[in-house]
Design a protein that fits this description.
Length: about 500
């Protein structure tokens, strides 16, 4: 049971007479009822309240559940005087004057009761408004949703205040907090939902409120109920705080676990090394040789050699059969073609801009195209290429292309990383890890949301043997699947 449902159960137990023990010494609710009726008659005779049409007695068919013998089912209008408020807008608020409560504040600022107000109004306005006295209930009888309509607070201040429109002021001789807890119980809420009217604005009329039935306990038992509910609600508050901490911890765990998995992977701590694997140094030599062949064949351009990795640059130790390399040494990297947007067409090769992809794939909205020329050949995307955003608020986002459904070319500021001989998914996991993301974030801050092509080429990559790359990718895939399931649960 969640905390919200626990609160509901506590309140319902309270108004069913199941929360505290009955005491045969308590004056019964029927006597309390008679006293209230007599008191109302006196007020009518004194001209303080108007005489109203008698309400029908509560019938057996209306009673939803059994209550203790010392309790009594009554109608709200029988034992309370309900007045409708009017006037008081937010424009009527002043820095000082007569304390007031606006109906909107009941929804936003107050819980069950208050002894202070957060706003005031002038005497000129206040003298025209309905007065609220100690223990009166202020009920917001309009709302934009069904749950909030009839939200109520008890005024427990030792001075009178005023309230305005969209409220009902409920005057009574009952424990005010018992009434508040009643109004939050299923007993009241079910009846309220039946009498509320409206679509965009939900409203409950004062006349309809008067007919709502509720269980009236002896006055002494009301006090015991309120005391018990107060304690239990305080415990619920603590449970809620702990639940929020736990949810926050769960979210932190779910959000950060994938990062930890990737970091362990690129440090060589996720899977066991195998001495039978061909070491990364041999793999590296093969890659360098392959790149030279491609340059000689004119398939890729010759570039200025990158400096070797120095000991000062190495962020952590890696297994002996791994090797620190630069991304530009093991991949072909370009920064996209400088397309002119005025030449975009409805037909032609699809152009991939920084807004056209995310971590999940390509975004098939607002697609732009360009007439193909052979100048675009080095920017054409292929399956297993990695693209990386070099500018803007999403700088550093990347995508490993699993499928190509049509010819595509990258726009400027979208870097393409083309890899051969290495497990592309492993390199993508390195890019997603804190090792590379921290570099991106650091440069992003210093260059106003930009990273250079040179920075990408200089990325340090911990290169494992090819066989180990395969084992790492398999293990990371498996663990990230569990992480996604965990997020769904949370």
């Amino acid at each position: 049971m969640n905390i919200k449902n626990l609160r509901k159960s506590i309140l319902q137990y309270a108004v069913e007479g199941k929360l505290v023990q009955q005491d045969i010494q308590d004056e019964s609710a029927s006597i309390l009822y008679d006293k209230i009726i007599k008191e109302k008659e006196n007020l009518i005779n004194q001209g303080q309240i108007k005489k109203e049409k008698p309400l029908p007695p509560v019938t057996d068919d209306e009673i939803p559940y059994n209550i203790p013998e010392s309790w009594k089912w009554v109608r709200l209008g029988e034992v309370c005087v309900i007045k409708r408020g009017s006037g008081l807008t937010k424009n009527d608020f002043t820095n000082n004057g007569i304390p007031c409560i606006h109906y909107g504040q009941i929804h936003k600022y107050y819980k069950y009761s208050t002894n202070t107000t957060i706003t005031y109004t002038s005497e000129q306005i206040g003298n025209k408004l309905k007065t609220v006295e100690y223990s009166d209930i202020i009920m917001a009888v309009t709302s934009e949703n069904m749950n909030d309509v009839c939200k109520s607070i008890a005024w427990l201040g030792n001075y009178p205040i005023v309230t305005g429109g969209h409220t009902a002021i409920i005057k009574h001789s009952i424990n005010p907090l018992y009434l508040i807890y009643l109004f939050n119980s299923s007993c009241f809420q079910i009846q309220k939902n039946k009498i509320a009217k409206g679509m965009k604005v939900i409203e409950v009329s004062s006349e309809k409120l008067k007919n709502i039935i509720f269980p009236l306990p002896p006055l002494k038992e009301q006090e015991r109920i309120v005391k018990k509910v107060d304690k239990l609600m305080a415990l619920c508050d603590k449970l809620e705080q702990e639940e929020e901490k736990l949810l926050s911890l769960d979210k932190y765990f779910a959000d950060n676990l994938p990062k930890s998995i990737l970091q362990y992977a690129v440090e060589g701590k996720l899977v066991q090394q195998d001495i039978q694997d061909e070491p990364a140094s041999i793999l590296y030599d093969k890659i360098v040789k392959e790149k030279k062949n491609l340059i000689n064949q004119g398939q890729i351009k010759k570039e200025k050699p990158l400096p070797p990795v120095t000991d000062d640059e190495i962020p952590y130790n890696i297994p002996e059969n791994w090797k620190w390399v630069r991304l530009g040494d093991i991949a072909v990297i370009n920064g996209g073609y400088a397309f002119k947007s005025v030449l975009f067409k409805k037909q032609g090769i699809r152009v991939i801009r920084i807004s056209d992809f995310n971590e999940d794939g390509f975004i098939d909205k607002n697609i732009v195209r360009y007439e193909y020329t052979n100048k675009l050949d080095e920017y054409i995307l292929n399956k297993n290429n990695i693209i990386l955003c070099m500018t803007g608020g999403t700088v550093g986002k990347s995508l490993l292309i699993k499928e190509i459904t049509e010819p595509m070319a990258t726009n400027q500021r979208v870097a393409t990383i083309k890899i051969n001989t290495i497990k592309e998914q492993y390199i993508h996991y390195v890019i997603l890890s804190n090792l590379i993301q921290n570099i991106i974030q650091k440069e992003k801050i210093s260059t106003n949301d930009n990273i250079s092509l040179n920075t990408i080429k200089y990325f340090l990559i911990p290169l494992p043997p090819l066989k180990e790359q395969e084992r790492i990718v398999k293990k990371v895939d498996e663990l990230l699947t569990y992480c996604n399931k965990l997020k769904d649960i949370i």
